[in-house]
Amino acid sequence: MMIAYLDQQLRLGPGAEADPHPAGGELDPELEAASEDFGGVARALPAVVLRPGSADDVAGAIRLASRSDRLTVAARGNGHSVAGQALAPGGIVLDMRAMARIELVFSDGGQPCADVGAGVLWGELLEWGVREHGMAPRSWTDYLGLTVGGTLSNAGISGQAFRKGPQIANVAELEVVTGEAERVVCSPSHRSDLFFAALGGLGQFGIITRARIPLYPAPRLVRWIRVVYSRIEEYVADAESLVACGEFDYVEGFAFLNRGDDPASGWDSVPIGPGSVFEQDLIPQGSGPLLYCLELALNHELNDDVDKRMEELLRPLKYIKGLEFSLEVSYVEFLSRVNLAESEARANGSWDAPHPWLNILISASNIVDFDHEVLQPMLKDGIGGPMLIYPLLRSRWDPRMSVALPDSEVFYLVALLRFTRPYPVGPPVEDLISQNREILNRCRSNGYDFKLYLPHYKTQPEWAHHFGKNWARFVNLKARFDSRAILAPGQLIFSRAHPPTS
Ligand SMILES: Cc1cc2nc3c(=O)[nH]c(=O)nc-3n(C[C@H](O)[C@H](O)[C@H](O)COP(=O)(O)OP(=O)(O)OC[C@H]3O[C@@H](n4cnc5c(N)ncnc54)[C@H](O)[C@@H]3O)c2cc1C
Question: What single DSSP character describes residue 175?
Fold first, then answer.
């Protein structure tokens, strides 16, 4: 019934125009919302937005698209992409938020898992798991207003990933509807080719409709810690020794401005906890324009020896003594820590402004040079938001997954999460985009071993370069699972006019 309506709405045939304001059925009339994303840079109106109730609805939409030689289908999670990745110009957008069921299940071996619709937000999963079952997944993103299907199509990285792997390494089973409209339940042991292709697969091989995510007892409390460094060399040495020893449950960090006039990325962005003050006199004379904050966490239960553990683990670190901050919070509070920043950004208008973000995965062997050659000279005035820099371990990523990584075992996520006011209060977005381009040019000309995270390229040769030696595999998988290039057109990897040829 819904597909018949969709069919009628799209009026397949030469010269047919889709009605941009469909009414009735289960179709979503809000095409406008589906024509943009968090990035606010790309824009494309779809022909129709559908709220699928099941994998069969998803398959029906794909079958319908396959009857034309131009229609595409994009799954839209929560639209938090920054370069139009979830858009479908003139095509069908599937609003995956409609698939938001969560159920507790047990694997054959007795492992509790959350069986979740792909449109569930990680924040919803956290609330459900902890409140109803005292359990939670173990790998997160910093911000939880992202869908399960959306982050599993990329990677899902936060401070737990060095130890537990990214979110894509914490999945027991997927239900995927391929670009051939086939519904497949896959796992590491069954149809593993599609399972690993879909993880980090940028939505290219199928639409994830359901994921099974292992759950573990949720820690009761978290000791949240921040310590400050003036030199990148000491910062990265400590960060890398901590991810190697694996004693902390969470290791992240960020660069911030060595000055007090920017509450979002200056000294004041560092202290945590009521009444804690950043003693700027403690910063060594001659420090550069950027300082570095290592952010750590220890999960623990009531009445255990967390103070002693924290003291022992911090003792060998070379941070500026006196510039350490800590706070005791619940597990849910810790994982929801970005909510406050979101409220502030919504209040000051920077949430709705364009966000030309740049996320780079760069080898540990290049990170100090990157700081000296790129960060310090180019970003000494900040970006109005966080500049995350923290290490990850390649061995926690299964090489069968689609995501492209630098070659070295230790690599850093450098996330330039720009939050500026809309122009003319803030800078023109074109200036920020050209600064991103310049940063990447310097990375290339300096010969760094790096890959973009949440990549966005406009041409196939650029994508081929991005995937490197795995490009041929990527194209072969596309030819098998989405031979007509119907899915995720906004990634600009393949198009209906230029489908994959294996
Ligand atoms: C404020 C903010 C904070 C963030 N923090 C982090 C972070 O800490 N760590 C991190 O790793 N990332 C982070 N991200 C990036 C985030 O992972 C991406 O935006 C990701 O795309 C998820 O967003 P989404 O669920 O809205 O997906 P969308 O942006 O809607 O979709 C992303 C891509 O995946 C495809 N897709 C979506 N759902 C499915 C599905 N079910 N099946 C197949 N393909 C699908 C889309 O077609 C699109 O190509 C953050 C983004 C924002 C805006």
Answer: E
Q: Is 190 a catalytic residue?
A: no
Mutate to test the pocket of ligand 1, among 95, 154, 212, 358 (most ligand atoms within 8 A of CB): 154
What's the pLDDT score for residue 304? 81
Residue at token pair 């894509």: 168
State which fold the 102-217 domain adopts: 3.30.465
- Average pLDDT on 115-122 reads 98
pLDDT-wise least confident of 38-47, 285-294, 299-308, 453-462: 299-308
Mean pLDDT (whole number) for 170-179: 98
Mutate which of 153, 334, 387 for ligand 1 pocket (most atoms within 8 A of beta carbon): 153
Atom in ligand 1 nearest the alpha carbon of residue 149 = 41
Provide the pLDDT for residue 113.
98
Q: What is the rounded distance in angstroms from the CA atom of residue 323 to the CA atom of residue 231?
A: 14
Does residue 252 have an active-site annotation?
yes
CA distance 405 to 398: 11
Helical (H) or strand (E) element with 344: helix 339-348
Place of tokens 């319908």: 64
pLDDT at 8: 64
CATH architecture of 221-453: 3-Layer(aba) Sandwich (3.40)
CATH number belonging to the domain at 2-97+480-491, selected among 3.40.50.150, 3.30.43.10, 3.40.50.620, 3.50.50.60? 3.30.43.10
pLDDT at 19 over 80: no
